[in-house]
Amino acid sequence: MNFFASFTTGKLIMIVSLLMFIALIYFFIRDFYGKVVDEVKEKQAKPIEPVAVASLQKTHQLEEVINQKIANMKLDLMAERLRITSTAEVLKNLANERHLPETLYQIYFETRAFPKKSLEAQQTDLEWHAQAGITDLKVEPMPLDDGTQIYFTLHNYPYKLTAVNHRFARTYFVELTLRDVDDVRLFVVRVKASETNGREILETAIIEMKSGDWIDDIASCRLLMDKRKTEVQLMAEHREVELLKQRFILNQGGNKFIASKADSGLKKK
Question: Tens of pLDDT along 186-217?
Fold first, then answer.
């Protein structure tokens, strides 16, 4: 009773006014927040300006053009790779058919010791190589690498053959590079030979090759080498026959004795 008795009219008015003020603030904040949300939604819902649309279309078209160019480049690269691969196989087959790796290795193997020989032996070697069409022979060590430089002429055309030795752990091979008079690389091949005598070729790998008249020059050298080898074999066989003729002689007197016995037998009959 005392609480309600002390609750005067003035206090009641103040409480009611405070409640109305709080309610007013609530509705004001709600309306303000609603307007802000609506404005944001309107901004998001606005259509893109024509300039932006055109820019996006150009970007998309440019992306399509770039993708098409990339696709065309990939196709061209595949076609070029197939063409180069086919060309490489044709040249490698040609080199193997003409025995180019074997011929160049034989030139290197037979001439690498030329500078260490006596003048008389060098003259003999020059005559030997001339039978294969090789003239103007000059052999010298390479200044920087472990190898040999061989200068020679085939069919009046000068060539340079370099041989660089490579050894990795248990693997040994020599890389032969044939160059023309302008120092252009014509043929590069790696040869793995038997380490027992060095003459027998175990494996070859053609690294680089250019077509040209030099192929016929090396091929003709191969033919002359084979002809020279055949002549040497025939001469060796001829010497063997002559030696047999000297060691095994049929006595003519023995023939006369046999003939006389045959005649005497006929007379008895």
Answer: 999 999 998 777 788 999 999 999 999 999 99
Beta carbons within 10 angstroms of residue 129's beta carbon: 21
Taking the CA atoms of residue 104, residue 108, residue 110 and residue 111 in that order, the dihedral angle to the nearest 10 degrees is 130
Q: Tell me the Cα Rg of the chain.
A: 50
| Confidence (pTM) | 0.64
CA dihedral in degrees (104, 106, 107, 110; nearest 10)? 160
Helix (H) or strand (E) segment spanning residue 111:
helix 100-111
DSSP single-letter state for residue 48: P
Query: Which stretches of the chain are assigned E, i.e. beta strand?
Result: 135-141, 147-154, 157-168, 171-179, 185-193, 201-209
Say whether 124 sits in a helix, a strand or coil.
helix
